[in-house]
């Protein structure tokens, strides 16, 4: 049983290290939208019942208690796209949910993810080992060690389309959000069915990462390895989105960035 009249109507569901923090900030600045101040509620990626007539739905919606009745409610938890059970639970909660997805070159995303975990102290392996033999650790901790796996966007979009109609998802691109900030926001407002805000949110730069002490920069050998690994999925992503992703295959994009 699904929640009656679900309060939450849209999600930024992915992908991690693709600029979703900046996107959350842009959306929060719109007076017609309400997002909780704390990004990443992580509600649907924990065990939940299928019966939304119980307390779980109201518990989730307490995070939106301060929203005005005329505001459209949403939140941003980028792990949802990668975690199939989350998508299933989202559908059970609100089958009409609108899903915003922000994607970037999966090779750069993987490196940015690894660097974040090294900085946190959760990762001890160097990047070359982490993306090769280290992938076996995903079974024990899929949140931390999924550097490679989270970049298979085509497979994730395929699962998403099994659960939601294509018109309920909007795919955006990190490089395009940087290059055409106003145009990207206009697409979002149209997708959500809201007017452009009187004062548009200012752009936020997704800054390249400077080399850090003790952390090697992304090596060309590792980039080539990952591009070969991702090639079939990149083709699938192109087919599902209609986007030419030849730059991802060629590796002709900007240096790795924080992707916050």
Describe this structure in words.
By secondary structure, this protein is α/β, with parallel strands linked by helices. The protein has helices at 20-28, 56-61, 84-93, 106-120, 127-130, 153-163, 174-179, 181-192, 220-241, 246-250, and strands at 8-14, 33-34, 72-76, 98-103, 169-173. Strands 2-3-1-4-5 form a five-stranded parallel beta sheet. Strand 2, helix 2 and strand 3 (72-76) form a beta-alpha-beta unit. The longest helix is centred in the C-terminal third of the chain and has 22 residues, at 220-241. Residues 253-258 have low confidence and may be disordered.
Describe the structure using short key phrases:
Rossmann fold; 10 helices; disordered C terminus; glycoprotein; P-loop_NTPase; Deacetylase sulfotransferase
């Amino acid at each position: 049983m699904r929640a009656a009249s679900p309060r939450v109507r849209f999600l930024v569901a992915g992908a991690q290290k693709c600029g979703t923090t900046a996107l959350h900030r842009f959306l929060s600045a719109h007076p017609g939208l309400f997002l909780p101040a704390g990004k990443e509620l992580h509600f649907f990626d924990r065990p939940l019942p299928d019966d939304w007539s119980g307390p779980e739905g109201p518990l989730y919606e307490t995070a939106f208690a301060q929203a005005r009745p005329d505001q459209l409610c949403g939140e941003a938890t980028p792990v949802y796209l990668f975690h199939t059970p989350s998508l299933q639970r989202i559908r059970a909660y609100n089958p009409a949910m609108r899903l915003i997805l922000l994607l970037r070159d999966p090779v750069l995303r993987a490196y940015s993810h690894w660097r974040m975990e090294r900085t946190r102290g959760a990762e001890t392996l160097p990047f070359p080992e982490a993306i090769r033999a280290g992938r076996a650790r995903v079974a024990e901790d899929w949140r931390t060690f999924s550097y490679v796996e989270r970049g298979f966007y085509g497979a994730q979009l395929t699962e998403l389309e099994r659960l939601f109609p294509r018109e309920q998802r909007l795919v955006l691109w990190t490089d395009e959000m940087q290059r055409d900030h106003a145009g990207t926001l206009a697409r979002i407002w149209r997708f959500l069915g809201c007017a452009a805000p009187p004062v548009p949110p200012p752009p936020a730069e997704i800054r390249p990462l400077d080399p850090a002490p003790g952390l090697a920069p992304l090596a060309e050998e590792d980039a080539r390895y990952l591009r070969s690994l991702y090639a079939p999925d990149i083709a699938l992503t192109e087919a599902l989105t209609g986007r030419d992703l030849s730059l991802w295959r060629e590796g002709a994009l900007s240096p790795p960035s924080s992707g916050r």
